[in-house]
Amino acid sequence: MWTVLLTTAIIELRNVNSDFSKLRALIDQGSQNSFITEYAANLLGLKRERASVIISGIGSATRKCRGQVSITTTEKCSNGEIGTIALIIDTITKPLPSATTRNDGDIGLTLAVLADPDYRIKGRIDVLLGADIYGDILLDGIIHGTPTTQKKKIGWILSDLIATPQADNISISFVNTNDLDKRLEKFWIQEEVVSRGMLSKEEKECEAHYQATTKRLEDGRFEVQLPLKADPRIHRAPSSKAANLKYEAHEKRMLKNPKLLREYNECLQDYLDCGHMEKIPKDEMSLPSYYHIKESLRTTKVRVVFNVSAKTASGKSLNDLLMTRPTIQSLIITLLLRWRLYPVVLIADVAKMYRQIRVRSKSADLQRIVWRPNEADVIRHYRLKTITFVTANAPFQATRTLYHLAMNEQD
Questions:
Q1: What is the mean pLDDT of residues 115-132?
Q2: Which of 97, 228, 285, 354 is the most exposed place for a label (fewest CB within 10 A)?
Q3: Where would I find the H helices in 106-165?
Q4: How big, in percent rounded to 5, are the helix, strand and coil portions of the chain?
Q5: In this structure, is residue 349 part of a structural domain?
Q6: For residue 328, what pLDDT band results from cuts at 50, 70 and 90?
Q7: Is the peptide bond prior to 165 cis by the omega test (within 30 degrees of 0)?
């Protein structure tokens, strides 16, 4: 008897304690969204958010999700991480494969490089990685055989017709549709006012650090210092080679799209022209930030995102070294009520807000990147001289600086 071997992977998901838990995932391009079971969401202990989504599949059968969580998994072939939003449901599918399969021969790869070394053994599925993340895990590499193997960032995945003693009929296809009636109902229901808790010890230290280290420069701009909870010198590790390899891989991909490459280089050139980045000598012991491209239709067409969560050989990333930031933004209901107190409301937008705030020299040394504007040039090292918006503390420092400015200029 023959059955279809669906692509599965053993992935490591970050839990609430910043450790990683191994779970079995199904890779399914036919699903618009990624999913996680209630069991796995509770196991990871991640903060869940409400999600008004109706899930429909074959035969138009529908079910409701139990909320959503942000999940992060590690790349098997590098120190990188991949993240997405997963909808919570009771179950995803029956255990896969539908029956334990025979080992009919050599697939040409060692078990260590496979995304799921136990692909032949029937097992529980707790995560589904859908089309929303599928493009982020793609790599070049395919081996045609029985089964067919494809290279992904989470390891080599397998799929094909295979021989089995017996099999159940399993068909999976998810379609995500928004329930308009539920969304309208939610819009008109007054949200419960959530009281803001006391600051933790680390959050208080973060606020004290800001007050002690922030200063205003002669040109009127503010200069801040990254709030570190650990000495970065203890966790320094050679990472320039890894940064170069990461950059060359991105560059190779962008060379196939000249428009993307041009806009990417223009973005970093703007950093240089504005004085927000400067060239520095090569330092093998630096902590560079990797980066990737994020295409956005709302703002600029291309935005360079520096991946400060990428771990170096020491096992630590820049974000791992930063203190937990306190939340100081006003609650949305407070802002809405404030609008009702005045006949006129003024709204303003700060252009390149984070890049208007400088960071001290020793903090800029932790924000190192590599770049070359032309493929024929030598890859050079740079450091970012302003707040980098993907760092864990950037929202706090930017908003806190606005409050600081308002207090200084209130007269």
A1: 88
A2: 285
A3: 131-134
A4: 25, 25, 45
A5: yes
A6: confident
A7: no
| Number of domains into which the chain is organized | 2
In the block, tokens 């909808």 appear at: 87
Residue burial 336-352, b: 16+ Cβ < 10 Å; e: rest: eeeeeeeeeeeeeeeee
Whether residues 81 and 129 fall in one domain = yes
Give CA–CA dist 11/139, Å, rounded: 17
The residue among 187, 222, 240 that closes a domain is: 187
In a domain, 193, yes or no: no
Q: What are phi and psi of 173, to 5 degrees?
A: -160, 115
Mean pLDDT, the chain, integer: 81
Give a yes or no: residue 195 inside a domain: no
Residues 338 and 228 in one domain: yes
The residues pairing with 322 across neighbouring beta strands, listed in sequence order, are: 228
Query: How far is the C-alpha of 220 from the C-alpha of 24, rounded, in Å?
Result: 53
**Structural domain range at position 62:** 2-187
Exposure string of 77-111, with b = 16+ CB inside 10 Å and e = fewer, is eebbbbebebbbbeebbeebbbbebeeeeebeeee
Task: Name the DSSP letter for residue 330.
Answer: P
pTM score over 0.70: no
Query: Residue 255 is encoded by which pair of tokens?
Result: 């060379």
Distance separating alpha carbons of residues 81 and 73, to the nearest angstrom? 6
Q: Is 66 exposed, middle or buried (0-12, 13-18, 19+ CB in 10 A)?
A: middle
Angle between helical axes of 240-254 and 258-273 (0-180°, round to 10): 130
Question: Does a structural domain hold residue 196?
Answer: no
Distance between CA atoms of residues 257 and 301, nearest Å: 14
39-48, 139-148, 299-308: the lowest-pLDDT one = 299-308
Burial of 21-56, coded b for 16+ CB within 10 Å and e otherwise, reads eebbbbbbeebebbbbbbebbebbebebeebbbbbe
Q: What are phi and psi of 269, to 5 degrees?
A: -65, -35
